[in-house]
């Protein structure tokens, strides 16, 4: 996959799908804007859900500043609901940045297994299942959201074989 240098890349998938690992493998640390990291910057705890509103405000500010400078920007968040992607799409449009979606549509059992293996921030199973339902509901709508490229990864082998 080729990514133009001024693009906005959204990683889309439930917790435990491997988005953060994928991001670290394929992108520079400065290119990745993580909702968990923004939560940690706000509250010293990436698990502090009470900081989410402020964390996403910070995330959108960083995305805005990077795209204004025409810098590749990768958003590492679940992004499973269209409403979660709306503001990011508006920022990309404002700055004329191509939008790319990398969708992690992995089986539930894979996400749950990855979640169990985490050393920190284990997400409740019910939340992961809801995120998977939200993702499935979003998939048919993605093509209408203005993405220039959409890549859907359905197995761990596809995730591992993917090249940027």
| Total domains | 1
Low-confidence stretches: none
Rg over alpha carbons = 15 Å
- Average pLDDT for all residues: 95
CATH architecture: 3-Layer(aba) Sandwich
Count of alpha and pi helical runs: 7
Q: Main sheet, how many strands, which sense, barrel? A: 5 strands, parallel
Given this structure, which CATH class is correct?
Alpha Beta
Please explain how this structure is put together.
It is a single chain. By secondary structure, the chain is an alpha/beta fold. It has a single domain, classed as P-loop containing nucleotide triphosphate hydrolases (Rossmann fold). Helices cover 47% and strands 14% of the residues. It is built from seven helices and five strands, in the order βαβααβαβααβα. The protein has helices spanning 19-26, 35-43, 52-68, 82-94, 108-117, 125-138, 156-161, and strands at residues 8-12, 32-34, 73-76, 99-104, 149-153. Strands 2-3-1-4-5 form a five-stranded parallel β-sheet, sandwiched between helices. The protein is globular. The mean pLDDT is 95.
What would you say about this model in short?
The protein is α/β, with parallel strands linked by helices and 164 residues long.
Which secondary structure elements does this structure contain, and how are they paired or packed?
Layout: E1 8-12, H1 19-26, E2 32-34, H2 35-43, H3 52-68, E3 73-76, H4 82-94, E4 99-104, H5 108-117, H6 125-138, E5 149-153, H7 156-161
Parallel strand pairs: 1-3, 1-4, 2-3, 4-5
Helix pairs in contact: 2-3, 3-4
Q: Which labels suit this protein?
A:
single chain; 164 residues; alpha/beta; five-stranded parallel beta sheet; 7 helices
